[in-house]
Amino acid sequence: MDLSVIGQHLEGLGDTSSTGFVFQCFPIGGEVDVLKVTVEGREELPLFISVSDDQILCISYLWDESQVDPARRPAMLEAMLDMNIPMPLSAFARLDDWYVVFGALSLTSALAEIEHELAVLSDNCLEVIEDMAEFLL
């Protein structure tokens, strides 16, 4: 699967998306090519897509370590573990100092499945931020 194909598909949906979301895509070149995807109305929580030899990875950055209340950090980590399984199509991770939510898809995933994963990931980000607000400064 090629990132440009994903981007063209998402932007081509306009307001006819089966998820009800309108997507904008911005390629980011580098050692690993990334597609930055924003969901209309949720621009502050962009999604980042990369393609490796085995998977399509979709990530959204939530907050960094400096935003976590140090006294509440252990409780936050426990709450994240408890929330991990019931959160559909997504899981928590940490990249450097950033807490993220991610989902992975097969390289053979249909474009509609990628659109669905992005919509669910975006919804999950909003839910996580609301549920974890008590642990943040």
UniProtKB/TrEMBL annotation:
InterPro entries (alphabetical): DUF2170
Pfam families for the chain: DUF2170
Protein name: DUF2170 domain-containing protein
Taxonomic classification: Bacteria, Pseudomonadati, Pseudomonadota, Gammaproteobacteria, Aeromonadales
